[in-house]
Amino acid sequence: MKNSIPITSSELGVLWTTYQRKTMMINMMEYFIEKSEDRAAKKIMINYCKENNKFVVEIEDIFKDEGAIVPSGFNEKDVHKDAKPLFDNMFAILFLRLMMKLSSGLNALHLDMTYRKDIRDFFKRSSTSSQEIFDACTEYLLEKGVLARSPYVTMPKEGEFVGEKNFMKGIKLFGDKRPLNTVEVAHIYQSIEGHIIETHLLTGFAQVAKENDVRDHFMKGKELTKKIVSDLGSLLQQSDIQSPSTWAGRPTDSTEPPFSDKLMMYCSTTLAGFQLTSNALGIALSLRSDLPLKLTLLSQDVYQFANKGGQLMVKHHWMEEPPQMEDRNHLIKSKK
């Protein structure tokens, strides 16, 4: 039954964005399901596809009820299930867990941008689903010994307040910087964890991309993520903290593309946007003065990579245009 209240521009926008991301992920997961040799991993991915196919249909129904064209998104033409495995058996769940982090944040953000009850309910249910899949991925990876936990620390015995200006100083001509606090470690650690997975992803994408400029773009992205892992890792090591690492998730030697260049470009650009958001949060919550500077410089490189990715998608006609607001000036001029 059609809702009597029309959707707003912001609701149209967030549903459109969600449709793009979910159709991309469903098609990628269907390929990984086909290649998976682990029953537990396959079950997690099947559950993801089952739940999110329902969400995709819901979005399509809302668009149709509103008289809006359904986005193209991604479909079976963007995946080649007969291609050889591009990554080892652990990559799919590592990648799915990372994407559920992104989805949880976006669901919360999109919920704040909606007004109509059924759409608010949609994002609440989508958020719950993302969190459940994230939990399942985390438990699976911990059981397999793949996921490195963040470092342990001696528990504080009493509350303290900052009593000296040097607490916020990270750049000193003489003397040592103060050790990182647990809030700073949390954001740095999670950023490194994400960039390690992204390095493997971009390496695999570079091996199979058809277009030369797309392949070069992925190679540059791979080198960028390696640099970020190294730079952030050195910050941890200065406080005698071991950087996260894992033997799992590495690409194979396959050069057969399981995904279209269009899908791989959208995926890499989406992850770059996620890392920019993550860095912004790290900047806001870092109290040592050198950390915001370091994260800002790294964010500039990530932004340039994402921006170049957008340009390539436009060049190859892969970027689907979001719904536009009315161009009032054009309408006025057309009446003359």
Automatic annotation (TrEMBL):
<dbReference type="InterPro" id="IPR012347">
    <property type="entry name" value="Ferritin-like"/>
</dbReference>
<protein>
    <recommendedName>
        <fullName>DUF3231 family protein</fullName>
    </recommendedName>
</protein>
<dbReference type="InterPro" id="IPR021617">
    <property type="entry name" value="DUF3231"/>
</dbReference>
<dbReference type="Pfam" id="PF11553">
    <property type="entry name" value="DUF3231"/>
</dbReference>
